[in-house]
Amino acid sequence: MIEDAVAGSEFDADLVEAIVFLESGGRPEVIAGDDPIAASGVTQILAETAQNFLGMKVDLDASRSLTVRIEGALRRGNLELADRLRAERRAVDHRFAPRRALAGTVRYLTAAHQRLGSTDLAVVSYHMGIGNLT
Fold first, then answer.
1. Distance (Å, rounded) from C-alpha 2 to C-alpha 122?
2. Does residue 29 surpass a pLDDT of 90?
3. Residue 105 half-sphere exposure toward CB, CA atoms < 13 A
């Protein structure tokens, strides 16, 4: 998936793979905290960044509701229901869909590289924001 995401970009698959492991350990369901408004998914993208900068679909209300339902299903040990709810959440919040999240990450890095002029600064900005780094 990572190689597909970086195809045609100026970024190396190993670099994006490193971001994935740093951000989520490769786990696509990770949320930084208990609310999906925070950094979420395999590349830990903020809801605002996903919607307003990367053009990703994020229905935050639906994502929140599904997150609560997923947690409930997991507490009850209903893994089949949790998997179904995760699939629903991937459809309403693309940060939880690994291919879409990876594509968003490459779009972010590309924009950051264009603005900042270097791959190193683009990667640093991924963690702190282009505006904060500038």
1. 17
2. yes
3. 36
pLDDT in tens, 98-119: 999 999 999 999 999 999 999 9
Tell me the sheet residues that pair with 40. 31, 45
Nearest in space to 83 (alpha carbons), one of 73, 94, 97? 73
> Are 130 and 118 spatial neighbours (Cβ–Cβ below 8 Å)?
no
Spatial CB neighbours of 84, under 8 Å, sequence gap ≥ 6: none
Triad 82, 88, 91: Cα angle to 5°: 145
Residue 28 φ then ψ, to 5°: -75, -10
Instruction: Give the list of residues 6+ apart from residue 90 with CB closer than 8 angstroms, or none.
Output: 96, 97
pLDDT score of 127 more than 90: no
Q: Which tokens hold the place of 40? A: 């979420």
Which two three-digit tokens encode residue 62?
A: 């639906």
